[in-house]
Design brief:
By secondary structure, the chain is an alpha+beta fold. It has nine helices and 14 strands. The strands form three sheets. Strands 11-10-7-8-9-12-14-13 form an eight-stranded antiparallel sheet, sandwiched between helices. The chain has a four-stranded antiparallel sheet with strand order 3-6-4-5, sandwiched between helices.
Length: 351
């Protein structure tokens, strides 16, 4: 999982999405297949005034890290392979713990973080007939460890839940979670540096079912207080760099109630447009993944739609390498009306 989840189409091409977030003196590892798009993406970034690193290692293998003692590695995900290379046990153990949705729930209970009704199991075999009969529907059956909505099933009733259970092996930890009746989910990002936890940005999620499709900013909801104890807990135990919490928003009359769903102890889909927007001073934007028939950037003509620093409006290409398999993530800057207009025009260009 060096760039994104293994089950995601074109996952090996996702290394390109961090390019716009880099600085001039950074070094970046990119998959060699992205060489064909390098000239086009660097020209695009040059035209919109987005500075970035040109120090590229055309290989995403961990044998290249660290490249120099003065270079601080920044990993998408700090797992077992990264631990073997980097040796940061505190970081790795914190990631391993919180990356489990079941561990997240136990820590939330310990720290008083509000969460939906959830029951955790070491295996689907542990889900009793009584649990099947009494757990409120609709609900979600989730693999304790999953990325990008993979291994998550919405269950309307007991029959649907029984069918979903058949998708899991006997040694897969799972959880049952009552469905939260809302269409509003937040992404609250933190950055931890030298043990200090700093709020990065709160964005609202764009979802297609359980799969993340994008984010938009600003959002009227910023409930940092409910997840901050957990972010600080992670900082104290050695976590480094970016993490994010998924939080559901429920409207209760004039009041908003917030429930933490999970923690992503890594860069996430919102991180890349967030960092680009902060570099460019963009204060209204949305990011979204699009499918396209184009298989190279040079065949996609969007110059008249590109981000203009003078107006604060336009398109920034974020995840560019995946155009090789027919999908691209864009960030669209501007107010809601402007973004909608640009999005409609962009969709026509993509097809």
């Amino acid at each position: 999982m060096s760039c994104t989840a293994e089950g995601v189409k074109g996952n090996y091409l996702y290394s390109g999405r961090v390019l716009g977030a880099t600085e001039h003196d950074d070094m970046i590892q990119l998959h060699p297949l992205l060489k064909s798009e390098w000239e086009e993406i660097t020209d695009h970034y040059s035209r919109i005034g987005l500075n970035h690193s040109h120090n590229v290692i055309w290989d995403i293998g961990l044998e290249h890290m660290p490249v120099h003692d003065s270079i601080t590695p920044s990993h998408f995900f700090y797992g077992d392979m990264e631990l073997k290379k980097g040796g940061d046990i505190g970081w790795a153990k914190t990631v391993e713990f919180i990356n489990s949705k079941n561990n997240f729930m136990s820590l939330a209970d310990e720290l008083g973080v509000p969460v939906p009704k959830t029951s955790c199991f070491n295996s689907v075999a542990e889900i009793s007939d009584e649990e099947l009969s009494t757990f409120p529907f609709p609900c979600y059956l989730k693999a304790a460890i999953s990325v990008s909505g993979i291994g998550i099933y919405r269950c309307e009733d007991r029959d649907a839940l029984s069918l979903a259970m058949s998708n899991f092996t006997a040694d897969t930890p799972v959880q049952l979670q009552q469905e939260v009746k809302t269409e509003t989910f937040l992404n609250l990002q933190y950055r931890i540096t030298d043990g200090e936890c700093r709020r990065l940005l709160a964005t609202e999620q764009i979802l297609e079912g359980t799969a993340h499709q994008g984010n938009f900013y600003p959002t009227p909801y910023e409930p940092w207080g409910i997840v901050e104890p957990m972010a600080e807990w992670m900082a104290e135990r050695g976590f480094k760099d970016i993490l994010a919490f998924d939080v559901a928003v429920l409207q209760q009359g004039q009041k908003s109630e917030y429930l933490a769903i999970e923690c992503n102890p890594r860069y996430n889909g919102a991180s890349y447009p967030t960092l680009i927007a902060m570099k460019c001073g963009i204060d209204e934007w949305e990011s979204c993944n699009f499918s396209t028939w184009h298989r190279s950037l040079d065949s996609l003509d969007i110059r008249d739609l590109e981000y203009n620093p003078s107006t604060g409006e336009g398109v920034v290409i974020v995840n560019w390498g995946t155009i090789l398999v027919g999908k691209v993530m864009f960030m669209i800057a501007g107010n809601r009306t402007t973004r909608q207009r640009i999005k409609l025009e962009l969709q026509q260009r993509l097809w």
